[in-house]
Design goal:
Helices cover 94% and strands 0% of the residues. The chain is an all-alpha fold. It folds into 2 domains: 33 residues; 40 residues. The longest helix is centred in the C-terminal third of the chain and has 43 residues. 0% of the residues are buried. The mean pLDDT is 81. This is DASH complex subunit DAD4.
Length: 79
């Protein structure tokens, strides 16, 4: 009976140690330190938005060169 009681206590101590480690990990992930998985999607969204902005700026420059730059040259010649 004494041996069973000691085994039970060892098992409870092992469970307590593991649970404490898991709780420490979860408190770091959820509160103190950002978890990589929680920020990856945001960084990907920002990168996608920056790429879209660059593409739109290039397209606007092309439109400006094609349609407006010629009008500006014609206007300058009349001065």
């Amino acid at each position: 009976m004494e041996e069973a009681s000691q085994n039970f206590r060892r098992t409870l101590n092992a469970i307590d140690t593991e649970m404490s480690a898991q709780l420490d990990y979860m408190s770091n992930v959820c509160v103190a330190m950002p978890h990589q998985g929680s920020t990856t999607a945001s960084y990907q969204n920002i990168e996608s938005i920056n790429d879209t902005n660059k593409m739109l700026a290039e397209q606007l420059n092309q439109i400006h060169e094609k349609y407006l730059a010629e009008e500006n040259r014609d206007y300058d010649e009349t001065l």
